[in-house]
Structures are given as C-alpha cells and as structure tokens.
Amino acid sequence: MSPVCRFLVFTSVFGLNSVVALGAESKQPKPDSGDVWDDVDSADSSESARSGQKFGLGLLYTPASDFVLSSGVYGASYLSSKLQVGARYIGGSKKLDVSETQGTTTYYATATLTGYLFDIDARYFVGNSFNILGGLGFRSANIKYSIEDRATTSVSGNITISSIVLPISIGNSWTWSNGFSIGCDWLGVQVPLSGSTKSSLSGTLSADTAKKLNEDLVNTGDKLAKTTSLTLLLTHLAWAF
C-alpha cells in the first residue's frame, strides 16, 4: 500500500503593439545652435502609459505549472513608471485516477488535488516592457484520496502541504494610454523557505500498517513542500486607472 500512496502523491503535485505612429516630426537643429537630434520618447510607449496610472486590476492564466496553478487575479499599485507593488492569488485543481499492480493484486486510487499561491510582490521594469518580479508568498495544496483493491482493503485520507515561498519571475508587460495592459511572465519559480505536511487516513488497515503509511505520506509531503516549483507563460490581462 505504501508505494501506491507515494506514487499517487508524486503524480499529483508535481511587440504586441508593433505598429506605432510616432506622430512627431523630426526636429532639425538650428544652424550654429549646437543642438543634436532629439531622442523622442513615443507618447504611446508602455513606460509613458504607466506613468499616468495609479492602480491596476487583472486576470492571470498559465497553461504550465507543476503545482496545479492555472488561473487567478491580481491587483497592483503603480508607484512609478518603473515600479509596481501588488498581490496575486493563483489557484487550480485536478482529478486523478491511477492504478498499480503488486504481485497478483491491483490497487486503484483516485484523488482530487486543489492548490493555490498567494503572494505580495514588487515588479521592477527595466526599460519599456521587460520586468523582474520578486516577493513573499504562501503556497498550499490539499489532496483527498482513496485507495482500494476492490476486495478487502480500502483506505481514504487527506494530505495538506503548505510552504512559505519566495516567488521570482521575468517577463514583459505592455500598457496602452487607455489603461489596457497585457503581459506574460515567461519563467517563474517559487522557492520554498519552509514547508510542512499534515496527513490523516482511515480504512481497513491494522494500526501498525496505518501508522507506517501515514508516516510515509507525511515524509513524502514534506519533500514536496520543500521543492521549488516552476511556472511557465503566466499571462496577465489588466486594466489600469
């Protein structure tokens, strides 16, 4: 039974504005003035658009995360055209049905996994759209499972994994003067600073077997809680005002 549960837990957790009208005529230097060509910053650039905004609200979506994160919301305060501070909530869930044969016995397992990440972060812009994000957050996952051999053995339980994490990401974000913003964090990681696991189970097991199984689940959960998770292509659509 123990290998099946370990298998179950491991399986569970783990430009856009390219056409821009500058609308500014070239400035010719006056004779004998010593002037040079002006470096004109387009009024429609993302950096200029951000300088006129104070707050932003948006939606998040990622197709690729190894911690069951898929969609969420965020809010941000624009301290300047270079710096934003805000908060994000990203969650997700999935259902698993797996089986494993040991000797002549086949075990069937089902599980429902839900997880989320909440963090407070700061986003610093390097140039017009490229940015770096860093912060502090809380990451949690809950697994409700049942395992049976459809004969004499049946086990069900719950595992909760939680971590304090350091989220870091790099990406691009483009903002228009009307407040619309679209961006993508191309690569993000959540580095755990601490982690813990709680586990409970019940079923047709002897006391010693149940105790050993629960210890195995807690040990496996602790390893997962202290594992760095990866998120790719976290897309955000927002409106600033």
Q: Assign an overall shape.
A: elongated
Rounded mean pLDDT is 80
Question: Which segments are poorly predicted (pLDDT under 50) over 5 or more consecutive residues?
Answer: 1-43
The profile of the biggest β sheet is: 8 strands, antiparallel, barrel
User: What fraction strand?
Assistant: over 45%
Give the secondary structure arrangement, pairings included.
Elements: H1 2-13, H2 46-51, E1 55-61, E2 64-65, E3 71-78, E4 83-102, E5 105-125, E6 130-148, E7 154-175, E8 180-203, H3 207-225, E9 229-240
Antiparallel strand pairs: 1-3, 1-9, 2-9, 3-4, 4-5, 5-6, 6-7, 7-8, 8-9
Explain what the structure shows.
The protein has a single domain, classed as Porin. Helices cover 15% and strands 56% of the residues. It is built from three helices and nine strands. It has helices at residues 2-13, 46-51, 207-225, and strands at residues 55-61, 64-65, 71-78, 83-102, 105-125, 130-148, 154-175, 180-203, 229-240. It has an eight-stranded antiparallel β-barrel with strand order 1-3-4-5-6-7-8-9.
Provide a compact summary of the structure.
The protein is of the alpha+beta class and 241 residues long.
Provide tags for this entry:
8-stranded antiparallel barrel; 9 strands; 241 residues; 56% strand; Porin
